[in-house]
């Protein structure tokens, strides 16, 4: 694996509330610093404007801007259950924040709860990218790990199958009763540029991290540039249960 990704960042424990203004994380590839006099920076601004204007209508855009060595490629996608208004707001925030957080890099990505945005001076469409990941997990363990993991595995298998069906555009979600009083909720999503086979590969890698980072935890999120996986013991995808408590204690890790 490229040594550029050999970075480990451990964040403090926090109470996390899902808000589009607060990114879950970002990646600024310092190997792609923009040289003085290059048109790449201006082309990125044009590209972001296009992504913002086009994504809200269908939740996904992959496009490029410029020519030759100054050409830049971009992708933006909202979570499949999110409405157009929230999608538009999230992509606008993402486009603004990614330029503030990665002002001099030609390869940058930013993750939000509702959306994801990336650009690069090299084409990446249709390629599975799990080179950089962000992991969130609940610091609390489940009380009956064997039973919980049985239901979690079955639910993940079900929604991964949903995600690779073309009609679902990379999205799978569902819920299952773990016990009389506990319901497990889960959602997976691939970026729409991936083939069903590549989507399945990305999700398999993401779910495979559960045992390492989220073993027996009450909640977990795995965020890659090509797919997203999450499970919780409360409803987090739309339509939401208005009586649910959305606050939980989490630890986050950003890892190659």
Can you put this structure into words, describing what you see?
This protein has 256 residues and is α+β, with helices and mostly antiparallel strands. The chain folds into two domains: 17-120, Gnk2 domain, C-X8-C-X2-C motif (Killer Toxin P4, Chain A); 133-255, Gnk2 domain, C-X8-C-X2-C motif (Killer Toxin P4, Chain A, 2-Layer Sandwich). Helix content is 29%, strand content 28%. Strands 1, 2, 8, 9, 10, 11, 12 and 13 form an eight-stranded antiparallel sheet that branches. A five-stranded antiparallel sheet has the order 3-6-7-5-4, with helices on one face. Helix 3 runs antiparallel to helix 4. The radius of gyration is 18 Å and the shape is elongated. Mean pLDDT is 89; it is low at 1-20 and 242-249.
The description of the largest β-sheet is:
8 strands, antiparallel
Radius of gyration: 18 Å
Provide the succession of SSEs: EEEHEEHEEEHEEHHEEE
The portion of residues forming beta strands comes to 25-35%
Named CATH architecture of the largest domain: 2-Layer Sandwich
CATH class of the largest domain, please? Alpha Beta
Uncertain spans:
1-20, 242-249
Count of helical segments? 5
- Overall SS class: alpha+beta
Structural domains: how many: 2
Share of helical residues: 25-40%
Gross morphology is elongated
At CATH level 3, the topology of the largest domain is: Killer Toxin P4, Chain A
Number of E-type strands? 13
CATH superfamily caption of the largest domain: Gnk2 domain, C-X8-C-X2-C motif
Provide a brief overview of the structure.
With 256 residues, this protein is an alpha+beta fold. It contains 5 helices and 13 strands.
């Amino acid at each position: 694996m490229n040594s550029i990704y050999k970075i480990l960042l451990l964040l403090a424990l926090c109470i996390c509330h899902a808000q589009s203004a607060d990114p879950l994380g970002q990646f600024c590839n310092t190997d792609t610093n923009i040289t003085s006099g290059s048109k790449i920076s201006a082309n990125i601004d044009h590209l972001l404007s296009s992504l913002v204007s086009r994504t809200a209508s269908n939740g996904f855009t992959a496009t490029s801007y410029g020519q030759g060595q100054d050409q830049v490629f971009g992708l933006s996608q909202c979570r499949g259950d999110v409405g157009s208004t929230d999608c538009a707001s999230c992509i606008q925030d993402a486009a603004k924040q990614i330029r503030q957080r990665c002002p001099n890099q030609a390869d940058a990505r930013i993750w939000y709860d509702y959306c994801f945005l990336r650009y690069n001076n090299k084409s990446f469409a249709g390629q599975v990218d799990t080179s950089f990941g962000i992991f969130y997990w609940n610091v609390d363990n489940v009380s009956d790990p064997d039973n919980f993991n049985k239901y979690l595995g079955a639910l993940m298998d079900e929604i991964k199958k949903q995600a690779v069906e073309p009609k679902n555009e990379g999205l799978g979600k569902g819920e299952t009763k773990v016990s009389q009083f506990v319901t497990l909720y889960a959602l997976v999503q691939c970026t729409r540029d991936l083939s069903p086979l590549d989507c399945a590969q990305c999700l398999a890698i993401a779910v495979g991290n559960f045992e390492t980072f989220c073993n027996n935890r009450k909640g977990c999120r795995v965020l890659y540039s090509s797919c997203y996986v999450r499970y919780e013991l409360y409803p987090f995808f739309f339509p939401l249960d208005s009586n649910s408590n959305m606050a939980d204690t989490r630890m986050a890790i950003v890892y190659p």
